[in-house]
Amino acid sequence: MTSAFDEFVTRVGPGAPERERERRLLTAELAELRAIGFGTWRVPAEFGGSPLALEEQFARLIRLSVADASLGHVWRGHLAFVESLRLQPADAARPWFERILAGDFVGNAQSERHATAHLETRIDRASGRPLLSGTKYYTTGSIYADWIHLAALDGDDRVAVTVSAHHAGVRSTDDWDGFGQLLTGSGTTVFDRVPVAGDGILPSVTTDAAARGAHLGSVLQLALIAVIAGIAQRALDDTIAFVTPRRRTFGFAGETLPREDPLVQLVVGELSVAAATVRRLVLSVAADLGAASDQGATAEEFREIQFEVFRLQEIVPRLVLEATTRLFEVGGASAVGTGPALDRHWRNVRTIASHNPVIQRTRALGRFALTGTLPEWSAPAAEETRTPRYARVGQA
């Protein structure tokens, strides 16, 4: 399937600006990727898969995001769902792996809009069968999905539940109004008395829950950073394509080739540095995360990797936002045209970086280093969890 994937990303890449301008959802492109098997490449061999190393899966996610940043982003929830299945007992994971190998796609729907952190999406068992009702926002990929994975309350228990996206009670709306990542389907999804199948609630795996949480949290956030790495490479490619045929540099009469201008060369060099650096950073952490998963790492070891992901969330957007601003120095007013759509790179990175505000992650790292307080992502007045000083970042 590698050659099919190579052909796919080469073919769909040129149409990305037009798809965004027309706000044409990626239904056809996603169907092709499903047929190629993109969503199956981490299914374990014992369930019928031919698994890639996690580092290679992320390398392909970056390549997909070079072709179309929204298309790469759409897969975030599905890839995390597959990783979560790898942590489940075999009998619970098997039916879901069978669906994934058959080509099913899983969307993600976690966020709610409330003044408190309490969930309002619930499972009602009064009728004798479990029925899910609630509203979720920023439901990336759900408009394209066969199944939607979400958090809900089952009585007083918070559970991870997965329901069919094809039931009449599920309505996904493409109402995402952000200025970037326009085709991710990150709109509103309403669930109205949607049946929950017997295997729709996976067992709560309590063995080393902290390790599992840090593992999956790292996968989810690293996927976003991988999309940014893809944008950085596409920004470089688009800038080279924009500069190379040009015959005149601003401020100089006659034919003065921009590609021979030292200042243009400097800007392109900066883009090249940013793209190569962030790709290497993402793949390095992905390799560590894959090895930790394969070797059954401890909670503390997974936490250290999660902190590495937090560090990438600080440095990668900063590098790429700066580079995607500087790229406009290569062409004067013509560089801001809607044809090349070079502005979309900055807009898309800024949108992704806003999913989990970088400043919160960075402050959490500093607080942990200084006080040993683990990140809780709760209200400032909430009780804080502390860890012994010897376990702090950067200390033996």
UniProtKB/TrEMBL annotation:
<keyword id="KW-0560">Oxidoreductase</keyword>
<dbReference type="InterPro" id="IPR013107">
    <property type="entry name" value="Acyl-CoA_DH_C"/>
</dbReference>
<dbReference type="GO" id="GO:0006552">
    <property type="term" value="P:L-leucine catabolic process"/>
</dbReference>
<dbReference type="InterPro" id="IPR036250">
    <property type="entry name" value="AcylCo_DH-like_C"/>
</dbReference>
<protein>
    <submittedName>
        <fullName>Putative acyl-CoA dehydrogenase</fullName>
    </submittedName>
</protein>
<dbReference type="InterPro" id="IPR009100">
    <property type="entry name" value="AcylCoA_DH/oxidase_NM_dom_sf"/>
</dbReference>
<dbReference type="GO" id="GO:0008470">
    <property type="term" value="F:3-methylbutanoyl-CoA dehydrogenase activity"/>
</dbReference>
<feature type="domain" description="Acyl-CoA dehydrogenase C-terminal">
    <location>
        <begin position="225"/>
        <end position="356"/>
    </location>
</feature>
<dbReference type="GO" id="GO:0050660">
    <property type="term" value="F:flavin adenine dinucleotide binding"/>
</dbReference>
<dbReference type="InterPro" id="IPR037069">
    <property type="entry name" value="AcylCoA_DH/ox_N_sf"/>
</dbReference>
<dbReference type="Pfam" id="PF08028">
    <property type="entry name" value="Acyl-CoA_dh_2"/>
</dbReference>
<dbReference type="InterPro" id="IPR046373">
    <property type="entry name" value="Acyl-CoA_Oxase/DH_mid-dom_sf"/>
</dbReference>
